[in-house]
Amino acid sequence: MSENDMSAGTSISADDVAIVGIGMHPFGRHEGVSGMDMGVAAVQTALKDAGAEWSDMQFAFGGSAAAGSPDTMVSKLGLTGLQFINVANGCATGGSALFSAYNTIKAGVFDLGMAVGFDKHERGAFRVNTKASGLGDWYGQSGMALTTQFFGMKINRYMHEHGITNDALARVSEKAFRNGSKNEMAWRRKPLSMDEVKESAMLSYPLTQYMFCSPGEGGVALILSRADKAHKYTDTPIFLKAAVVRSRRFGSFEVMAPHIALEHNSGPSVDASAAAFEMAGIGPEDIDVAQLQDTESGAEIMHMAENGFCEHGEQEHMLAMGETEIDGRLPVNTDGGCLANGEPIGASGLRQVYENVLQLRGGAGDRQVPNNPRTAYTHVYGAPGISGVTILAR
Amino acid sequence: MEETVGNQIPVQEGVFTWPSNEPRLIGSKCTSCGNVMFPTQASCPKCSGVTTEETHLGRTGTLWTWTVQGYPPKSPPYAGDASPKTFEPFGVGYVELPGEVKVETRLTIADPEELQIGMEMEMTLIPLFTNDDGQEVMTFAFSPIESSTTGE
Questions:
Q1: Is B92 part of any domain?
Q2: How confident is the model at residue A8 (pLDDT cuts 50, 70, 90)?
Q3: Is A202 in CB contact (< 8 Å) with chain B?
């Protein structure tokens, strides 16, 4: 029974999966450092964290949207012959790498392996390849192929329907940069006041510059092990209780959509969240800390409800009461989220899991969630309407 | 080739009727379930049906949501004025066409004070840029119907 006590009241079985090592290259802008090198640095840090060698890795799933083929990193890490598969799945690339690693172990194919993601994007908003998105040239030429517009339009409609105010949008950014200031890995570490957030340049009404995250750079690596072998590598294994990726269903409102149906569907985040909670056998009320996709501040607000943590509209009060602060009832984006860290696509979803592992180990330093959190939740969302969710427990 | 009218050509053939005094967006209707799509596509995302027929969408509807593009989009893909010095913000929204579909569209208005969810809109064409041959390249947009802004 001793092992049962260590996994949030649930028993460890042979096909459970644990995260036994984590590594990160700081996010931000790093002149002269390639995205690939950030990935390599993250892997080497994760190996050290687990007390493992690269030659111990039986498999890896790697993702990068704009910084090269991840499998070529073996020439820097060591040519060991391991199975290395590249993953490309838009904004859910990191989540998809983790999902793949998780299921590889669950299926009993391998005992120990890695999910790694890194990226390095050009400055400014993402340049959308309309052809690759299945859209005609006219769409981009006419000025509609911008992800920022989608987020402005989605939150504008949401504010209209659910009474969310501009103050709530500014509060999310203020929290993100305050949390980021306590995170040595974050890109933007200068706290900003609500007024500074509101008064920055209006990029896509009602969203201002400091309400948006920026494409950036960084790398994250996670080492996964069969749960019953996790103690070979760490005294504090963190168990992956669920990993889910979902695409959109008919009627949802998604980025890069020339049309949306008249009938309404609540979207892939709702579906992914429900599936993850079912897989983990717990509910939103059981989660102690959550990292939710905050491409912009309105996204965090909408995703709080879409992931089941509140009703639509309750966010206004929750934010005003500080309930999503690090010492609040449900801490959200404790590392500063995408807003403070930026969004290197291949690494972004893995950053959230990295932060949750730190929080569950009790190793998050100045931004540690109090009272020994036992369960943690991550959620990524991105084009063309894809969501990835994980649930961790110790 | 796109037909030139006066000195204007459409941004792409097959997106809206051209030439036309009352331009309409060209969409598809699923022959199995009746789902309406824009632009045209050969199969249906609702029922996975494999046959669709071309349909010309309604010209009027209501503004479902909107934003204002406040910074110059990257060019390419944007073909309009993306110069930081001369760029003018433009409105973008979804207009709900009754009984059909919501379409994403440029708006002729870019002032948040003048845009309201639920307002009545109608389709028009706007110049996007002037090409190397001196022709005005046109794309579609929706514009508020004047009468809807009174009596509030």
A1: yes
A2: very low
A3: yes
